[in-house]
Amino acid sequence: MDLSQPDGLDRLVDALAGPGWAVTEGLLPPATVQQLRSSCLQVHAAGGFHLAGTGRASQFAVREGIRSDEVMWLDPATADAAQQAYLQRLESVRQAVNRALFMGLAEYECHFARYAAGAFYGRHLDAFQGQRSRVLSCVYYLNPDWQMDDGGALRLWLDSDEAGPYHDILPQAGTAVFFLAERFWHAVQPAQRERVSLTGWFRLRG
Ligand SMILES: O=C(O)CCC(=O)C(=O)O
Ligand SMILES: [Fe+2]
């Protein structure tokens, strides 16, 4: 699915209404993807990342058995040009989804994520139990020339059964994956090389 095409957002909306997930290309031009990668690596080199946790607020905990990536939340107030271009595209996705599917998505929050070689994120759901605020997940990959042998695929289970069918997606620069946060269990496989991305969630208000 190519989001640079005029019917791209319509096709994305159809996929979310149908199977509930989509793998897309063409969200942004390759030069912008490269700029996002550079700003991610720069912030990391400057020490701007911290070890990711699970849970929110008082339930927040760093549990190394579950995930071992590092993250840095994007602040729209200080976003550089490439980050702003990304946030604007995700805003048009938000509006298209709300118009067609009445999902009532109120906002988008996202972070850069960096998985060092060998880092992983075990099987999980993005929506916290008992909370419906994270509705739609989006993972945007920033890794040029990713090979099958590099590992690091996102494994998306197509139903809740761990033994059931799944789809593996390579974290190739320019690929964006969208999926309904409460429905799809997923995991990040360890990779042979550094793996960076922008991961975010459309939320309901409140
Ligand atoms: O990087 C990915 O492919 C998925 C990351 C993820 O599942 C998360 O941050 O919740
Ligand atoms: Fe996730």
From TrEMBL:
List the SMART domains: P4Hc
Which GO terms of the molecular function aspect are on file? ferrous iron binding; L-ascorbic acid binding; peptidyl-proline dioxygenase activity
Keyword Oxidoreductase applies: yes
Assigned keywords, A-Z? Dioxygenase, Iron, Metal-binding, Oxidoreductase, Vitamin C
What this protein needs as a cofactor is: L-ascorbate
Q: Which domain of life is it from?
A: Bacteria
What biological-process GO terms show up in the record?
A: cellular response to hypoxia
Q: Coiled coil: which residue ranges?
A: none
- What Pfam family is a match, any one? 2OG-FeII_Oxy_3
> Which residues are in the Fe2OG dioxygenase domain?
99-204
What name appears for this protein in its UniProt entry? 2OG-Fe(II) oxygenase
Q: Which organism is it from?
A: Leeia aquatica
